[in-house]
Design brief:
Strand content: under 5%
Order of helices and strands: EEHHHHHHH
Shape: globular
Largest sheet: 2 strands, antiparallel
Number of strands: 2
Strand order of the largest sheet: 1-2
Radius of gyration: 20 Å
Helix content: 55-70%
Oligomer: single chain
Number of helices: 7
Structural class: mainly alpha
Distance between the termini: 16 Å
């Protein structure tokens, strides 16, 4: 899965669907780095460089990711609590994996003013498609790539562990046997999309 640049950040050329490199200057959309593919390119192209991510930008993107993921998990947990209560009544904990009940309990603790009852799916969808959220992931990954050489393993692990934990939770939720409905089908589709997002994120940190 490629990063979500719509235009090349180097030269402004519109990105062709599914392309890995900018057709004009060879900016690599996947990792956010300029890659020189053709030795015969002009000297103007050879001098193109991508501006490095500052520490401040990295901190901001990290905070954006953390807050948005908390909101996403809160939406998932509240939707699950509502649907499973309807399906099994108040004792649904007896019918599902304990890891899912723990996820619901933990993620529902968060309180956000912009998450409203009966709008959980809509909010979930808007959050995972938010451009600032996607851009923050790309900035985060670029900073890790630029600084990986001198980052201790324990630092990388502190980023990997929560993502892996989230992936495990999403897999458990997706495996739930839920009532067939349009809402639950959309819910599972969004879960799979979010799972792919997290898997790609983790792959770039390994």
């Amino acid at each position: 899965m490629m990063s979500n640049f719509k235009y090349c950040p180097m030269c402004g050329t519109q990105r062709e669907d599914g392309s890995q490199f900018c057709k004009n200057c060879n900016f690599e959309f996947l990792v956010g780095k300029y890659v020189k593919l053709d030795d015969e390119k002009s000297s103007q192209d050879e001098n193109i460089e991508v501006e490095k991510v500052s520490q401040e930008e990295f901190v901001e993107s990290n905070e954006m990711l953390r807050q948005t993921k908390n909101k996403i998990n809160c939406c998932i947990a509240k939707y699950l609590n509502y649907e499973l209560t309807n399906q099994y009544n108040e004792t649904y904990e007896e019918n599902i994996n304990i890891s899912v009940t723990e996820y619901i309990s933990h993620s529902s603790d968060s309180s956000f003013d912009d998450i409203f009852e009966n709008e959980y799916l809509e909010k979930f969808e808007n959050l995972i498609h938010d451009e600032k959220f996607v851009d923050s992931k790309n900035i985060f990954i670029q900073w890790i790539g630029e600084n990986r050489g001198h980052l201790p393993g324990m630092v990388l692990n502190q980023y990997k562990v929560p993502i892996q934990s989230n992936i495990d939770s999403l897999k458990n939720v997706i495996s739930l046997d839920m009532v067939d409905s349009d809402e639950n089908e959309k819910f599972k589709d969004l879960l799979n999309e979010y799972l792919d997002f997290e898997k790609e994120f983790l792959e770039n940190l390994i």
